[in-house]
Amino acid sequence: MTLHLTGEAAADTLLEREPFALLVAMVLDQQIPLERAFAAPLALKERLGGQLDAGHVAAMDPDELAAVFSAKPALHRFPVAMAQRVQQVALIIGEQYGGDPGAIWTSAADGPALLANVKALPGFGLQKAQIFVALLGKRLGVQPPGWAKAAGPFGNDGSFVSVADIDGPAALARVREHKQAMKAAAKAGAATGPERGSRKP
Prior knowledge:
mainly alpha; Endonuclease III, domain 1; 12 helices
């Protein structure tokens, strides 16, 4: 299986081969285009002198790491906050997984355990954790018993609702359309909230 998330072969290959890079990308996949988020680990690795290692990131001076994230072009819309979050993830990898980021999923006996491991990471709420479980299962073959159920709606076959469903440009377009439709629906719901709907003529 291969990833097709960024449009850049080198960036996608890094995500496939280096678990920490994939985790960094998932952390950054928030409030910026997904291609930018998933391409960022390659840029981060280059800025760190070719070393994108959880132990190295955990040991860095926080201000230095924030400066790396903030250097133009910034790696995220909120580079300082995301640098802090990535470092928090790196610290947990060192403290709980012996410095091996892949152990977050290889140590999980089943889907619920995998979801729990991911959800315990900084910045991973339930939905993001489920999407990551689905990404691991659908795109990278990480499929402990019950993984699809643990991924919730994102584990369903034939869906195009998250980054886990992207296997090429056409799927990317369908996922983007779905996200735009969801945002439009959310805005419409906000515009016709209870305060408006309850008004009497």
